């Protein structure tokens, strides 16, 4: 195997973290901000990109790392390496309520496509790149733009999804319609596109967006019940507009009470 062979255990329910056990000389690479804790003997280094292209030239490494800017990520990643004696443990935590799912790239043919902010960490040697959309409509309206993340190699990767995760195994020709924000990722055999919801009433009053994500097998698809954008939108909508507690909160009238108390200005 090119990637390090690591052992792991996932803890928790709503706010999970993954505990990875590293043998001597094994390592794991992670996005900044996901680290939780580690035992003495593990060394932390900041590297260009994911560290998978060690045989590349300096310019090649810079170009490979530079592509990460297109996904909104930093040029640098953090690698944690067991330089001590015996097994050592390190943990990475979820950024918001949801589930951590392990992705065994070897069982998925060495490649997995996922949304840009789903990646949490992976065995050192896994390549974390970008996948360009070849279809204009998918890029403009697919929820993830023209660029998604591409995980390649033969090691373990860990993704974080919001809420509860659904795993769907699609047979050849079998298709599924998904909210564009709920699609987490899929294997390389899956055909991904977008579809217009249709209908004047659905478009104007449906409240579910203008497009569905459509996936067609064969392959495996992961779906999340709570996209972060939806969670952030609900939180933003509940923040009082003028500071302090909303006067309509908890009352039968609800928000109508705010319109009748004389404090709202238009």
Outline the fold blueprint.
Layout: E1 7-11, E2 17-22, E3 27-30, E4 35-38, E5 42-48, H1 58-66, E6 76-82, E7 88-93, E8 98-104, E9 111-114, E10 119-123, E11 127-132, H2 136-141, E12 147-152, E13 156-162, E14 165-170, E15 175-179, E16 183-187, E17 191-196, H3 200-205, E18 211-216, E19 219-224, H4 228-238, H5 256-260
Keywords:
Double-stranded beta-helix, mainly beta, six-stranded antiparallel β-sheet, 266 residues, disordered C terminus, globular
Average residue-wise pLDDT: 78
**Secondary structure: number of strands:** 19
Beta-strand residue fraction: 35-45%
The CATH class designation is Alpha Beta
- CATH superfamily, called what? Mitochondrial biogenesis AIM24
Residue stretches low in confidence (pLDDT < 50, at least 5 long) are 136-145, 259-266
Order of helices and strands: EEEEEHEEEEEEHEEEEEEHEEHH
Strands of the widest sheet, in order across it, are 5-6-3-10-13-8
Task: Write up what this structure looks like.
The protein has a single domain (7-238), classed as Double-stranded beta-helix (4-Layer Sandwich), CATH 3.60.160. 14% of the residues lie in helices and 41% in strands. The protein has helices at 58-66, 136-141, 200-205, 228-238, 256-260, and strands spanning 7-11, 17-22, 27-30, 35-38, 42-48, 76-82, 88-93, 98-104, 111-114, 119-123, 127-132, 147-152, 156-162, 165-170, 175-179, 183-187, 191-196, 211-216, 219-224. The chain is globular, with a radius of gyration of 22 Å.
Question: Care to give the gist of this entry?
Answer:
With 266 residues, the chain is mostly beta strands. It contains five helices and 19 strands.
